[in-house]
Amino acid sequence: MALRLIEAPDDLPVSVAEVKAHLGIADSFTADDALLESLIQAAVGDAENRTRRQFCPATWELILDAFPIYTRANPIAAIELPRPPLVDVVSIKYTDTEGVEQTMLSGAYVVDQDSLPGRVYPAYGTAWPSTLDAPGAVVVRFSCGWAMTAETSPESWTGPEDIQTWLKVRVATLYGLREQVVIGQTVAEAPRSFVDCLLDRHTVPMVV
Q1: What value does the mean pLDDT take over residues 15-37?
Q2: Looking at 42-168, which runs of residues are DSSP E strands?
Q3: Which value, to the nearest 10 degrees, does the dihedral of the CA atoms of residues 146, 57, 168, 15 take?
Q4: What is the pLDDT of residues 118-161, one digit of tens each?
Q5: What whole-number distance in Å separates Cα of residue 101 and Cα of residue 137?
Q6: Pick from 187, 167, 155, 201: which is nearest to 46 by CA?
Q7: Which of 24, 29, 46, 170 has its CA 20 to 30 A from that of 136?
Q8: CA distances in angstroms from 109 to 81, 92, 136, 188, listed in the order given
């Protein structure tokens, strides 16, 4: 199994302006805006890895060697799609037994956006098609991530507020401590219950 990023997000869950407000930095001070944006990107990557989620809208491909088979543990032969929340399945392509790439019709499978992580499985009364016995025979392209809303100006993220809070705290820490080691000072972290637990309830099970 492999995961490939097709279309990266255009937005961030928190803006530079929101982080500056959290830090008490005046909007008129713009000298560190580029630094703050890079720190936000770093914090988002960290949080996404911790939670195994996709925060802002993106498109990914899940690459499999074959379709799943029906088992007692997986009675509907579902493919679990990582990096929820799942928005939609864009396409399912596979290499048939003759070595020809095929694209499944959208009516041939069901998309389950409510499960965590999201799933896709064959339509009722059908089964996954046979594939060539070769690596990467199945490619599922899907979109995921919490949307941005245009109801406010500028656009704002529609994901959980406590993730945004964690990001602001993380960026503030990175901004205040520019190096990994602080010499000649005593540094104490905030209790885990205050910071990292903000992400706990949004962390999804590992996709096997």
Answers
A1: 95
A2: 58-64, 79-81, 86-95, 101-103, 109-112, 118-122, 138-144, 148-149, 156-157
A3: -110
A4: 999 999 999 999 999 999 999 999 999 999 987 665 678 999 99
A5: 9
A6: 167
A7: 46
A8: 14, 9, 19, 52
Sequence letter at residue 63: I
Whether the model clears a pTM of 0.85, i.e. scores above it, the answer is yes
Q: Which of 122, 145, 125 is nearest to 8 (CA)?
A: 145
Band (pLDDT 50/70/90 cuts) for residue 185 is low
Token reading at 116: 């965590």
Residue 36, pLDDT > 70, answer yes
73 conformational bin, left if phi > 0, alpha if psi -120 to 50, beta if neither:
alpha
Cβ contacts of 85 within 8 Å, gap of 6 or more: 53, 54, 113, 118, 144, 145, 146
Q: Which helix (H) or strand (E) holds 3?
A: strand 2-7
Nearest-angstrom CA–CA distance, 12 and 148 = 9
